[in-house]
Structure formats: C-alpha cells, structure tokens
C-alpha cells in the first residue's frame, strides 16, 4: 500500500508542478548564495585565522541552528505536500501507520529538506576539513528532516490547541540549543558537541514524528460555508494580477520600469564612493524603484475594470472591497520590487533599515492612488503601450501633482537630515500612520464613488 501511495504522489507531483514556486525557490537560493558569498568575502581573513587555530569545528552547531529559522520560513511558504488523507484515500483500506510512513518518506525525498544541507556541504568544504564537513552535513540533514516533519505536523493538526504543542517543542529546542552552545560546547569540543547535538536533534525529530502519528485529522471539520470572494472560480485578488499579465500595455511598462529602476539603483550604488558626503542620496534610487512599481498601475484605478464594470455591479461586491484589494495588490508590487533589492543588502550597497523604511513609506503612499478611481476612464487591455492615452483624463493629470508630494518629502529628508537612522524612522512613522488610516480613507473614497455611481458608469461606456 505504501508503494501505491508513493506512485500516486509522484503522478500528482508531475501533473501539478508549480513553476512559480520553483522560481521563488531559485530566488531564495540565489539570495542565500549571494549572502554567504558576500560574508565569506568580507570576513575571509578572520576565517583563515580561525581555521589556522583549529577552532573552525566549533561553528558547526551554531551555524546549523541559525539556519533552522530560515529553512522553516522557506518550508512554510513552499512546502505543499499532503498532511492528511482526503475523502478518496479514506475510502481505501489504508492503515493509519501506512499513512504516517508515507509522510515520513515524502519528507525524506523532499528537495526542500536537501537544499540547506547541500549548501552546508559546499560551504564546509571550503572552510573545514572533510571530517568536519561530513559532520556538519549530517547534522544539517537531520535538522532539516526534523523541521520538515514539524511543518507537516502543523499542517496536519487542526485547531490552535493541537498546533501549540508543536511550536512549544520547537521553542524548547531553541532554548536548549542556546544553553548547549553557552555551557557545554567548549567543554565537549568540536566533534563531541556536534555528535551530542546530533542526538538531541534526532530526539527532537522523533518526538515530532510521534506527535504527528497520534494527532488526528478530520476533513469533515472544515467549514462548508464560503464568503463572497470569488467570481466564476477566480478570486477577487487574482483579478488584479491576471489583468496585468494579460494586458500588453501595462505589463510591458511594468517590467520595463521595474528592470530599469532596479538596474539604476545597483549601478548608482556600485559607483558611490563610501567616503562621499552624498552617500545617503543612494536611498532616492531605492525609494523610486519601490514606489514606481505600483505607481504605473496606481494612476489607472478602475480603468481596467471599466471594460466590465457593469458585470461587476451585478455581483454582491462592494466598491470598497475592490479598492481594498487593489490597495493590497499595490503593496504586493512594492514587495516584489523590494525583493529585487535584497541582494544589494548582502553586497553592502544599502542598509536593511533603508530598504525596510522605503517599503513601509511606499506602502502608505499607495493610499494616494485610490482617489484616481473617481475620474479614471476605461483602458484598452490589448492596446499598444506607446502613444496611447486611453484611460487618462484631465483629472488624472491634475491629480498627478499629488503623487509628487511623497517624492518631495523623501528628497527633503535625505538632503536636510544627515542622520540616516532619523530619516528611516520618520519615513517608517509616516508610512505606518498612512497604513493605519487606510481603511477609513478607502471607505470614504468608495462612498464618494457610489454617490455618483450612474455618472461613473456612463463614463466607462464612452
């Protein structure tokens, strides 16, 4: 029966292969490679001294434990394996023990559980002798298998009261690791501490698996009621990126602007002299890259929906819900641009606080795009991106001056305040305040839209 389950699992994996998750996995892998490479390049001399003194083996346990939260976060995002039997499998004579063995085997062959150990093997080969490298690889592999079972148990458990023991076990494991590294690691030595922590990690994984075997999973506990959030099988949020992917005009402009601004930010930071007094000006390029990712769509709120707005008004969907989802989609675009700038943090081009404050500020600035829904016009989704003014109006051109205000604020802060920490704090505070008032402001815009609903509908018909 286990062979049949594995065969069905393999067929399902081949038929439901997700390229988007593979792309996200490759991006995360590149970020880890760039970060580790930059760290090795900047601390090369100190690592050579540590290797010459023979104390390089003492970093095995801390290095593996520090990577654990990273790969847990990665598996929470990318791991999609089944945790409980569905109704079809429940109708078959599959014992509970066989299903638990199936979960164990799928965790053993999951590529997410092998990525971090392979990286540890490559890095260890460049820093440590072959014996220490194999010890680090085995310890990292055991750690990843245990964390993979942890994520599977969280997915299988239903209700916070059944998931809480898993998180408590993980917290206890991290507390034990801190005490072990402080009091016992130097006493046991490099090899002894690695072997001892291997057995502790093995016990952690076994305890997770035992709990996984006994926790129950019921499909009938799932609520059968659904909220109004889908139209014809597509979610309201998916309408945002589907319309972007299908429209030549917006997609080309979005990709071109995002690529050019990101490249400009990297080129500007590479040519910046570290001793230059205008070193903080590089934050302007970071800010413009993050902001312009949503600006190109923010100036045409409801212009795409103008092609089928009459159909939307026949659905039980409020204008506020559409604007609210657009607001969060703009934040998602800002986050995409921010992820493109993450490798620059590891390369030392800009600080993490600068990128984070710029993202928070740009997320709040997205609120200023919402009033353009009051005077936007219908846009042709399949028209060319050049010399095409559909969807624009005089009201949008006048309102464009409002968009200049956050740019002016950012430039003034960069120019007149020398302390970059103060600039980051002010930008984050402004962004958080705007995010706090986003819901009532969007409700006010939706109320203004509905006050002249029929006039707006006639504008979309022109």
Q: In words, what does this structure look like?
A:
- This is Putative membrane protein.
- Pfam families: DUF5687.
- This protein folds into 2 domains: 2-219, no CATH class; 234-461, no CATH class.
- By secondary structure, the chain is an all-alpha fold.
- It is globular.
- It is 74% helix and 1% strand.
- The protein is built from 19 helices and 2 strands.
- A hairpin with a 2-residue loop joins β1 and β2.
- α6 packs across α8.
| Helix and strand run | HHHHHHHHHEEHHHHHHHHHH
Class inferred from helices and paired strands: mainly alpha
Report, as a whole number of angstroms, the end-to-end distance: 63 Å
List unreliable stretches of 5+ residues: 220-234, 274-279, 385-389
How many domain regions?
2
Shape: globular
**Number of DSSP-assigned strands:** 2
Please describe the biggest sheet, giving its number of strands, its sense, and whether it closes into a barrel.
2 strands, antiparallel
Count of DSSP H/I helices: 19
- The average pLDDT is 76
Helix content: over 70%
- Trace the largest sheet across and list its strands: 1-2
Percentage beta strand: under 5%
How much is the radius of gyration in Å? 27 Å
What would a concise description of this structure say?
It contains 19 helices and two strands. The protein is an all-alpha fold and 462 residues long. It folds into two domains: 2-219, no CATH class; 234-461, no CATH class.
């Amino acid at each position: 029966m286990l062979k049949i389950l594995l065969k069905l699992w393999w067929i399902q994996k081949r038929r439901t292969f997700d390229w988007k998750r593979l792309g996200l996995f490759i991006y995360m892998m590149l970020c880890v490679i760039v970060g580790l490479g930059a760290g090795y390049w900047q601390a090369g001399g100190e690592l050579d001294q540590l290797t010459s003194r023979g104390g390089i083996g003492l970093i095995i346990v801390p290095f593996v434990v520090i990577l654990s939260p990273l790969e847990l976060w990665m598996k929470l995002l990318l791991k999609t394996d089944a945790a409980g039997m569905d109704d079809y499998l429940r109708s078959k004579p599959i014992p509970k023990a066989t299903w638990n063995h199936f979960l164990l085997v799928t965790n053993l062959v999951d590529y997410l559980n092998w990525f971090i150990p392979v990286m540890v093997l490559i890095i260890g080969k460049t820093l440590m002798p072959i014996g220490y490298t194999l010890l680090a690889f085995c310890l990292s592999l055991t750690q990843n298998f245990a964390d993979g079972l942890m994520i599977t148990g969280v997915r299988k458990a239903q209700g916070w009261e059944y998931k809480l023991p898993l998180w408590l076990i993980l917290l206890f494991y991290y507390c034990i690791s801190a005490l072990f590294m402080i009091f016992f690691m130097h006493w046991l030595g490099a090899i002894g501490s690695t072997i001892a922590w291997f057995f502790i990690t093995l016990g952690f994984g076994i305890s997770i698996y035992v709990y996984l075997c006994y926790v129950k999973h019921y499909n009938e506990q799932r609520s059968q009621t659904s909220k109004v959030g889908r139209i014809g099988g597509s979610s309201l949020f998916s309408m945002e990126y589907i319309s972007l992917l299908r429209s030549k005009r917006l997609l080309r402009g979005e990709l071109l602007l995002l690529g050019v601004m990101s490249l400009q930010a990297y080129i500007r930071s590479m040519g910046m002299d570290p001793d230059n007094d205008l070193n903080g000006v590089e934050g302007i390029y970071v800010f413009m890259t993050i902001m312009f990712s949503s600006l190109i769509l923010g100036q045409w709120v409801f212009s795409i929906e103008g092609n089928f707005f009459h159909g939307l008004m026949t659905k039980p969907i409020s204008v506020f819900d559409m604007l609210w989802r657009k607001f969060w989609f703009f934040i998602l675009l800002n986050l995409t641009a921010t992820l493109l700038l993450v490798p620059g943090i590891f390369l030392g081009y800009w600080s993490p606080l600068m990128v984070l404050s710029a993202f928070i500020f740009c997320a709040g600035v997205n609120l200023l795009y919402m009033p353009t829904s009051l005077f936007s016009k219908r846009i042709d989704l399949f028209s060319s991106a050049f010399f095409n003014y559909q969807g624009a109006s005089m009201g949008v051109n006048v309102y464009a001056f409002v968009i200049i205000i956050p740019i002016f604020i950012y430039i003034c802060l960069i120019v007149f305040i020398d302390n970059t920490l103060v600039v980051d704090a002010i930008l984050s505070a402004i962004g958080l305040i705007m995010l706090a008032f986003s819901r009532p402001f969007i409700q006010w815009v939706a109320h203004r839209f509905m006050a002249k609903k029929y006039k707006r509908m006639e504008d979309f018909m022109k």
